[in-house]
Amino acid sequence: MGKVVCGISISADGYSAGLNQTEERPFGDDGGDGSGAQLHAWMFDTPEENRVELDQLTDAGAFILGRNMFGPVRGEWDRNWNGWWGENPPYHAPVYVLTHYAREPQPMAGGTTFHFVTDGIESALAQAREAAGDRDIAIMGGANTVNQYLAAGLIEELRLHISPFTMGAGTRLFEGVPPLHLEQVSSRGASLVTHVTYRVLP
Amino acid sequence: MGKVVCGISISADGYSAGLNQTEERPFGDDGGDGSGAQLHAWMFDTPEENRVELDQLTDAGAFILGRNMFGPVRGEWDRNWNGWWGENPPYHAPVYVLTHYAREPQPMAGGTTFHFVTDGIESALAQAREAAGDRDIAIMGGANTVNQYLAAGLIEELRLHISPFTMGAGTRLFEGVPPLHLEQVSSRGASLVTHVTYRVLP
């Protein structure tokens, strides 16, 4: 059976997005133009030295996203929105989107299908586990979603990608999560990032 | 002229101490017995593999401490307290303690003298700089003191020692500090810690 893993890019002060997110500025007040450029510089500016970690991000048999990570539509699905990633999203597997508003599954090119889960994080995980078979299940974010899974004790491995800047405010990883015992599995620095992988101990 | 540096041990969620600190439990609700054992396991359990970082901690010509890091006495100095470190503290240099209550300098064995500074962080830094000569000035903590210096733009190099656990609450590094641009100078993992050094950009 696969593991439940979470990979997330955070600032040195633990934020995965700033305040005041909008469709045009999905990462809000992120210290830049709201595109998350500083947070993800390690992916886009120095991909070769981070190849292992980049490949890991999408190496799962099923994915779980919070609704805010899926897109800017709030409330009813009254507008056509199929994610930030174009026709062929990088998941190539079932993706479970947490929402309070029901919607039919949305198949995309390349094997990705977005499923909309209205009955909570445990249901989403059960569906993802069923779909993933022997492969891992990746909790993709944002931090609010990750925090819910951490608080419920449902994440086994946490892969932090820590970028060299601070946001000062926003959505913070670990906010409101009870204390965790972690085991540092690996840790390495690259030019624009520190990668730390923790095993979450029971 | 020396640099203004800060080395601080934090949990993976950025805390340098928990809630409810007391004399008997100086790190408060730190996930253990209040002694900071998890936070400092890298120092005490695996010193040999962290020798460089340990030596760096006390490699300065003058030190600055917040009053809470110096000790549990609050208000007037109505009781004899000369720090947590015994007769021969590990500083071997002048140490400037931030306080609102005046007190005569306290010489200790081994070259450490505690000076008590009542006129603010900039005054403490000016005095430390004068004393340090060409050597670095180390802002030792706790996080509240570090945050004041960070917010004032007075720290040039930040050395984080990140331990594998979360506290969930307490005194958090970067709390209330406006966004910072950082340059990752170095980053390496050891068994029980990730060491990341940032240069704070203007």
TrEMBL record, chains A, B:
Pfam families: RibD_C (PF01872)
InterPro entries for the chain: DHFR-like_dom_sf (IPR024072), RibDG_C (IPR002734), Riboflavin_Biosynth_HTPR (IPR050765)
Signal peptide bounds: none
SUPFAM superfamilies: Dihydrofolate reductase-like (SSF53597)
Ranges for domain Bacterial bifunctional deaminase-reductase C-terminal: 3-188
Domain of life: Bacteria
Record's protein name: Dihydrofolate reductase family protein
Organism: Glycomyces rhizosphaerae
